[in-house]
Amino acid sequence: MTGRTQALDENAVRRAYARWARFYDAVVGPVTDVGRVAAVAAVNALVRKHTGADPMDVLEVGVGSGLSLPGYARNARITGIDLSTDMLALARQRVSDEALGHVAALEEMDAGALTFATGSFDCAVAMYVMSVAPDPEAVLDELARITRPGGEVVIVNHFAKADGWVLWFERKLERIAALIGWHPAFGRERVLNHPDLELVEEQPLGWLRIFTLMRFRRRSSSDD
Ligand SMILES: C[S@@+](CC[C@H](N)C(=O)[O-])C[C@H]1O[C@@H](n2cnc3c(N)ncnc32)[C@H](O)[C@@H]1O
User: Fold this and answer.
1) Is residue 77 part of a domain?
2) Which residues pair with 77 in a beta bridge?
3) 20 to 30 A Cα–Cα from 201, which one of 19, 43, 77, 93?
């Protein structure tokens, strides 16, 4: 992490997203839509290539209010988890209101301590979660663990700029991380060096390029 940070532990995340829940879709939703659209498109491209007899299993960690859920291909099988009861309540309401039958489960769980079996998903997705999670390295470990070898991990996030006035501003904002519910000065290097994840695509998004999509292939042990 670059810059000074303020503790954003599990309770702070829950408190922050209990506050955000009422406004999230209206305020944060439109600003961050570009990343969700790109990540869901990346997942749907994998669904089209999926040859298994069973639907492609996708885990979305930090699913929040479920803004992404209607976008996934209906022949995928989506599981969502989140730390925040309040955000999950919105996601469950969405699934019910929009009859999203491809959403198999929505569970309250820590992305850094998943209860799913190793290799049990074809794809794992984290949209705007890495810079919120109290322990992003644990989340990355878990995303790699539950994704089967050859599967993909898709991450969308804002990463801190390398230098300039934007980085200066991000570091100032970092002081109120627990209040706003994310780390504005989160560095991209923190997701790049996992031994089981090979970066296959990195794409800045939108005309402002403040968000980045990364796709990683889950290595098999024979790749080493
Ligand atoms: C900025 S919101 C993004 C929500 C959603 N992915 C979206 O694109 O709208 C971050 C979400 O990550 C969740 N979160 C943060 N850390 C988490 C963790 N360790 N495990 C599960 N969820 C987490 C928060 O509760 C919140 O709902």
Assistant:
1) yes
2) 57
3) 77
- 224 Cα: distance to centroid of ligand 1 (angstroms): 32
Confidence (pLDDT) at 201: 97
Distances (CA, A) of 163 to 112, 168, 171, 173, 202: 30, 8, 11, 15, 19
Res 210: pLDDT: 87
Does the Cβ of 43 fall within 6 Å of ligand 1?
no
pLDDT given at position 176: 74
**Is the CB of 152 inside a 6 Å radius of any atom of ligand 1?**
no
pLDDT at site 2:
40
CATH of the domain at 69: 3.40.50.150
The response to whether residue 156 sits with its C-beta less than 6 Å from ligand 1 reads no
Q: Which residues contact 53 (CB under 8 A, 6 or more apart)?
A: none
Cα(160) to centroid of ligand 1, in Å? 18
Task: Specify if 53 maps to a domain.
Answer: yes
Task: Evaluate: CB of 82 within 6 angstroms of ligand 1.
Answer: yes
110 lines ligand 1 (CB under 6 A): yes
- Pair 33, 151: CB distance under 8 Å: no
